[in-house]
Amino acid sequence: MDLTPSDEQRLLRESADRFVSETYTADHRRRIASEPLGFSTDLWKQFADLGWLALPIAEAHGGLGGGAIEIGVLMEAFGRGLVSEPYLSTVVIGASLISECGTEAQKQALLPKIADGSLYLAFAHSERQARFDLADVRTTAKKTPDGWRLDGSKTAVLDGSAASQIIVSARVDDGSGNPGKLCLFLVPQGIPGLASRDFPRLGGGRACNLELRDVQLPADALLGDGRDVLPAIEAVIDRAMAALGAEAVGIMQTLLDQTLEYTKIRKQFGRPLSANQVIRHRLADMAMQCDEARSMALRAALMADAEPVARSRAASGAKAKIGKCARYVAEQSVQLHGAMGVTEELDVGSYFKRLLAFDTLFGGSAHHYRRHAALGGRAVQAR
Question: Where in 51-181 does DSSP place strands (E)?
């Protein structure tokens, strides 16, 4: 297998690394953290001008037709800068759900708006009782004479308050008392019956919890033709985990670079910390964990379009392994920086928090070790 990046992928990496390093400084991150949306709308427009928002969208719908590898290149650069713009929620997840489930008319209406930066999306799927089980959805959708009525609760909706349209998953209530088909609905922000509670995410960005009480929607709010969308949701979340893995690799590499530089200039007993053999061994272990995580993220991206079991095993394997690697690198970086590692004076603490958030988003390492084993036909005892 030839893993050499193409010329286009190398140019994308170079341009993204340059833009992120020049724009996402510590001062910028502190300033953006106090913004109501948790990100810069001006930078989002620049993302659109650079073609990043159109990257995974098909050419027929105003996009560039990129794949999971290109998304991974971009997300790794975003990890280096702790980018807080809603790229994951709007482009990686939102645009993919529309591409997978939407009718041709919905694709033509929505995807070009995502590509030009005028439409923000969020995906409201997780529920408190589900514990990362994508099939466990209790929000209901009932057919009405004028369309649909939605009732239920959603938790940890990434960038939900910034989204002009929220893609909500719900079980269609057919009156039989049995769980109906899982469908997706486009819910406009601010519609009567929709209540939102916004909160800051660990490591940057914002999320919200949603309450839907007698939310009335028109018939065309249904995304797609009414078929069960669970397989599509699983595919999109698997790709999102591959993208998150690439972002985590960017964060880990930055922590390694900063820690290596710090141990070269920080002196103890008249010698640099890096002269200590024990410190060198710990730095070598950090580098090895970064390389292992990068390999797993690349494998998940390469398997993004494989058949469902292989794709899901690759995604869960990556999420589980990268979660372990990320925690090790984050902890070592903070420890090797000493007390400075947890202060606001250095960026290390911010990167550490983002890696902790990565380990819990879409399920932690323990959950995905069990999912990986179950997909391979093996039972694993819950710990």
Answer: 121-124, 140-144, 147-158, 165-172
